[in-house]
Write a structure and sequence with these properties.
Layout lengths: L2 E6 L4 E8 L2 E4 L2 E3 L10 H22 L5 H4 L2 E7 L3 H18 L3 E5 H13 L5 E5 L4 E7 L2 E7 L5 H11 L8 H9 L12 E2 L2 E2 L2 H17 L4 H27 L3 E5 L6 H13 L3 E4 L2 H4 L3 H13 L18 H34 L7 H19 L3 H13 L26 E3 L2
Parallel strand pairs: 1-5, 5-6, 7-12, 12-13
Antiparallel strand pairs: 1-2, 2-3, 2-4, 7-8, 8-9, 9-14, 10-11
Length: 435
């Protein structure tokens, strides 16, 4: 039998869990609660973890009835990322220390995979479409060919972040956590208010609805058009409807008959009820867990470490670091592909534009003068750049050439507009490699 101790410290919760062959022996944790109206910051969160982590390790060992951890524990797993840098370091330092002290292997674990594997362990779901909703993540995931495939995700902020921020705006406390208090207040809501609904395929956007309730919603509360409970109720209903829609679309794409909800927001009873209705209408089955395993905990990290130990993986100590945005092989491939598209291709176009411009200058016989050639080239280049938002370096090079040849005064003023291309920020969690 393989027994693994797992340490989770990626956000405002520090937890230690012990798992032995699929059985959770212990799973204590402590939560940092920020002052009223504030979110948790990395320095204060890390200080909280440092003050409590040793006590929680001792509690986990005692609850699991582990008398001699050096002989009874087969490995230490810890959250490598993604998460907040300073809190992650606390868990990593403790894990490395215990690994060296007890002379047992060390396993760095992806936080997102920890949530999914714990959900599968507790619910016994076989191959579900996974809705992963938490304070920092919102993704629809399915497992195929040794990888978790991301079918849809938030384009901006996560569901938990959106709910927590609005909960603080209406002065809901952070204890036990803002989204839970918002859920309780939403039960008293009686009026459904129309809010922005943004779904794009299997992706969704939440920044618009948050901005709306932050400004227009609070104004409606002040004028008496609705109550805070009505707005919490409407916010939940709208966001959860968006989540159900993208999940159902992914289930149809995968022809899946199972859906699993994981992550802190996954413990929301209303979300589970709405997802259950959708699953029942499709002849599918919903799998969900309660707050013991939905919310960040050490047992979920230990469970992934257990898989790694059974796979006979050996991780060098030098590789056991932390990263706030943990990468994986497939995500790196996509990153380098888009880096080529967005950086190398424009550079090639710039060089091509410059070459065409100087070729035009060389063939001056076809034009009346060198001045006309340069002017025509710059006009052509500016029009091209204006259309595609590229050609800046080539344009600047020609302008410098014209200045050196004292031709700049003959060139009419050209209004150059640089189209600022807002490229979507690539996240390393697009696809996670199951270790």
């Amino acid at each position: 039998m393989v027994c693994i101790l797992g340490i989770e410290s990626s956000a405002n919760k520090v937890g230690v869990g012990i798992v032995r062959d699929g059985e959770v022996l212990s799973n204590p944790r402590a939560t940092y609660h920020a002052p009223l109206g504030q979110g948790f910051r990395p320095p204060e969160t890390a200080a909280h973890h440092r003050q409590n982590v040793v006590r929680i390790v001792i509690d986990a060992l005692q609850q699991a009835n582990i008398k001699n951890p050096q002989n009874e524990i087969d490995g230490i797993a810890y959250t490598k990322g993604p998460g907040m840098g300073a809190p992650l370091q606390v868990g990593a330092i403790v894990a490395r220390t215990l690994s060296q002290l007890w002379s047992i292997p060390l396993y760095p674990v992806n936080h997102c995979i920890g949530h999914i594997e714990m959900g599968r362990l507790i619910t016994k779901a076989e191959n579900p479409v996974v809705l992963y909703v938490s304070g920092g993540n919102t993704q629809v995931i399915s497992y195929s060919n040794q990888r978790y495939r991301i079918f849809g995700e938030t384009l901006d902020i996560a569901v938990g972040n959106c709910l927590d921020r609005f909960a603080r705006l209406v002065d809901l406390p952070n204890d036990p956590f803002p989204a839970y208090n918002l859920e309780q207040l939403a039960l008293k809501g009686k009026k459904l208010i129309a809010l922005p609904y943004t779904v794009k395929g299997m992706d969704l956007s939440l920044s618009g609805i948050l901005s709306y309730v932050e400004h227009k919603g609070l104004q409606m509360i002040r004028t008496g058009e609705c109550t805070a409970a009505d707005l919490c109720f409407s916010l939940q209903e709208t966001i959860f409807a968006m989540l159900v829609e993208i999940t159902e679309r992914a289930m149809a794409h995968c022809n899946s008959s199972e859906v699993l909800i994981v992550g802190g927001v996954g413990s929301n009873k209303r979300l589970q009820a709405m997802m259950s209705i959708m699953a029942e209408q499709r002849g599918a089955k919903l799998f969900a867990t309660d707050e013991r395993f939905c919310i960040d905990n050490g047992a979920m990290i230990a469970q992934v470490g257990w898989h790694m130990a059974n796979a006979k993986m050996i991780i060098d100590l030098e590789e056991c670091s932390t990263t706030q945005l943990q990468s994986c092989a497939k995500a790196a491939e996509r990153y380098y592909f888009w880096m080529f598209v967005l950086l190398i291709v424009p550079a090639i176009i710039n060089c091509f534009s410059l070459a065409i411009s100087f070729i035009t200058i060389v063939h001056v016989r076809r034009l009346k003068s060198v001045t006309e050639a340069i002017t025509s080239s710059i006009h052509w280049l500016a029009r091209t750049a204006d259309r595609v938002g590229l050609g800046i370096s080539a344009h600047n090079a020609l302008m410098e050439y014209a200045k050196k040849k004292n031709l700049i005064k003959l060139i009419p003023n050209i209004e150059y507009r640089n189209n600022n291309l807002n490229f979507r920020k690539l996240r390393n969690t697009d696809e996670q490699l199951l270790i």
